[in-house]
Write a structure and sequence with these properties.
With 222 residues, the protein is α+β, with helices and mostly antiparallel strands.
Length: 222
């Protein structure tokens, strides 16, 4: 009789175990579905949030490439547009220092894209001012002939750069003959008049004329 009772209890417990297993399975599947849904939402939300980090990563993973390109662009802008012509060395130094400090501050606060952009801007300023420093002559045979004495000097040369227009710092609005603009070129000097004779020279200098002149181009003789 005891054995029969035990067997009957086992028979009644088996359906309960089957029901519990099915319920647990359904709950597990529902939890897995909810986790997958949450993961999809997080992935979609994170895709738009990581765009700035990816763009900044392009600069940070290849810093020398982008910094070199920025320096080259700065050189070209200074050569053809003269965008740093009126910037003094002190102002240039302060601008680069401010850009570098801003890049460090952005990086510490997690603004990687802003830090990368400011670092590229600093390289751009560096390239522009390097181009400006290269204006002095590569070969200078003019200085031995043309001194600082108050003597008239006649030169012949070839325009070596595009014209650069900038505001005339000596302009006076009250003077009708005063020009508001100045025009500058780099000129390759080829001859200097010594008395009545012309002597061959080789020098690179900057020619500045009051007024906005647009009829002289690289290669023209002056």
């Amino acid at each position: 009789m005891g054995q029969a009772a035990d067997s009957s209890d086992a028979e009644w417990q088996a359906p309960d175990q089957l029901i519990d297993a099915e319920v647990a399975k359904e709950l597990g599947e529902g939890r897995a579905d909810s986790m997958e849904g949450d993961g999809a939402v997080e992935t979609n939300g994170g895709a738009s949030g990581h765009i700035s980090e990816r763009l900044a990563g392009i600069v940070y993973y290849r810093p020398l490439l982008w910094l070199s390109l920025a320096v080259i662009v700065g050189v070209k802008l200074q050569t053809f547009a003269g965008w740093l012509t009126n910037l003094s060395p002190l102002a240039w130094l302060c601008s680069v220092a401010l850009a570098l400090v801003s890049a460090v501050a952005f990086h510490r606060r997690g603004f990687t894209l802003g830090a990368a952009g400011v670092a590229v801007l600093a390289a751009l300023l560096f390239g522009g001012y390097c181009a400006r420093l290269q204006v002095p002559a590569r070969s200078d045979s003019l200085s031995s002939l043309a001194t600082r004495k108050a003597e008239p000097i006649a030169l012949r040369g070839i325009i070596a750069s595009a014209a650069v227009w900038k505001p005339n710092p000596h302009h006076r609005s009250s003077d009708a003959n005063s020009e508001a603009w100045q025009t500058q070129w780099d000129v390759r000097c080829t001859q200097l008049r010594d008395g009545r004779d012309w002597r061959a020279i080789d020098a690179l200098g900057r020619l500045t004329i009051d007024g906005r002149i647009d009829d002289l181009f690289p290669g023209d003789r002056v």
